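W.,

You were right to be curious about this one. When I first looked at the sequence I had no strong expectations either way, so I just let the prediction run and decided to look at it fresh. Below is the sequence, 659 residues in total, followed by the output.
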Amino acid sequence: MSDSKSGGPGNDKKKSKNSGGPQFPFGGPKLPDLKRFGGWRFSIVYILILVVGMSLFNYVFLNKVNPTIDFSEFKNKIAAGEIKRVELTDSYFTGYTTFQQLNPPAAPLLGRRPSRTAAPEVVFRTVPINDPELIKMMDEKGVSYYAVSREGSTVLNLIFSWVLPIAFFFFIWRFLMKRLGNMGGNVLSVGNSRAVIVAEGDIATRFPDVAGVDEAKDELVEVVDFLKNPKKYTDIGGKIPKGVLLVGPPGAGKTLLARAVAGEAGVPFFRMSGADFVEMFVGVGAARVRDLFKQAREKAPCIIFIDELDAIGKSRINNIGGGNDEREQTLNQLLVEMDGFDATSGLIILAATNRPDVLDPALLRPGRFDRQVLVDRPDLKGREAIIRIHSKAVKLDPAVDIVAIARITSGFSGADLANIVNEAALLAVRAGRKVVEQRDFSEAIEKTVAGLQKKTRVLKPAERKLTAYHEAGHALVAAFTPGSDPVQKISIIPRGYALGYTLQMPIEDRYTITQSDLLGRIDVLLGGRVAEALVSGEFSTGASNDLTKATDIARKMITDYGMSDRFKNVALTSRGMRLPGDAPQEPAFHREYSEATQQYIDEEIAKIVEDRYAGVTKTLNRIRPLLDAAAARLLEKETLDEKEFKTLIEEYQSSPVVS
């Protein structure tokens, strides 16, 4: 879709959303899931409650003992007849002031013999001393004494002193290791590949599910055929490319195309992002690359897909002295692994990037990623096919014109089109309709391009009038500029960051733009600013986004397209994306010209914008009655569609006032 939305007195921004299958992790030991343990959701809170409970149990039951007295005092109380019976253990001698028959029941588990008398009982404890006179004294005084075995207490002490603390620290360790593993910091498995593998036959995506990239699909049919029938190629001595690099803008369908290749071939599919290789530990990325290729060789034939390859494949030339050693080690290991496997083994590497200009030249040489496939935005036929695929599960009104939708979405990626179909379905449900109508698609396109409609925002009358003239200026300049895209809709209802917007939709796809077309785009962008100045006599901040776009077009005309008087046919920068087939070279993002040239560029940009501003001012002054009429109609109706706008122009042109 050509850029044809002009913001009103408020900046406008375009937002785009990019839109996988069943996957399960593969590779390297993985800790068991501890989120559920014994029917409870695993949490450290329960461990703390257990520890507190153990402490209270120990305090209340195990440590509830009387203070000890001297051994001599203990003997004196026996001699005086205060102690009636004595309990003998290895740790303490305990004397009781109440009498109990010998041969008592089994020794109590917690070390105290319960009293069978109603009289209050007083307990005296002392540390044992080997004194033969003590037994003789107790016999003389008629004190009953007995020994108590501590086997039960010993088991409890073992449990509470060793088993439970060890179990507690074990669960804490497992809990921390699980958390660290989620952050990529599990030192026990840090070098294992984090690739997601989809088993053979589990990928449901096929080539018919991918539309709008027919040329790219044709390139990859050879890869699928090799994985299915490798003998056909090896018998003649042919070798399939080791690596295939998918190049294209975001949302064009690179990942979807890779999944379709794996689905058609029916082989295991390893998927990993370039960012998954690099961690904070030096050497981790290289270890993960080795582990990934080791697993892939064991499951060959298979496909390795590395998404966002530029995360680890950036050129090493500009990083001398300040580069990331870990990233470079990862890249070096990837280069070695791609050189180390046999092309006839059935192991094929697919990678995707939208930044081919920053990749290291060593990655793109023959023998590594020796085939580059351009996955570009779809054309008219491709957009129609994509919309039909995504609308299969959507109930459409019979009157919906998919061809018209495809025509007005020029420049949209596959992800954008999928999002539009979904947004249209949601809008239909919100309106209470059972089917999706054409107006739902129109609203979804406007929502994607201009943002969400803000019906509750109330503008002051002066701002509203200024917005109406601003948008009318954009639309009328577009209507009277040869070669400009036709205006589809004008609105002063705020959307997103803009207080108003003008939508221009191209009649057909365009792949080259002439100098006059670029100047016409600058005119349309300046139309709003000129209209504001004519009606109010001053400027506002509402045209800031328009000025940014106009300045950018003028700069590219001079620096990229060689459209200046002094530097005709000279490209002053090399910022463009390198296309497949171009020789690998180091990308340059720095200025490649002198200060004097920079001064000329600034002056030439100002001159171009000034000249175009003067021309737009002349045009709007000539049709000032039409400008006033269009602004008044916008203030009355808030929105004008293509038909109403054309009728307004025809009425003006047929008026006797026009000479």
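Here's what jumped out at me. Residues 36-61+154-182 form one domain. And, maybe more interesting for your project: The mean pLDDT is 78.

Coffee later to discuss?

I.
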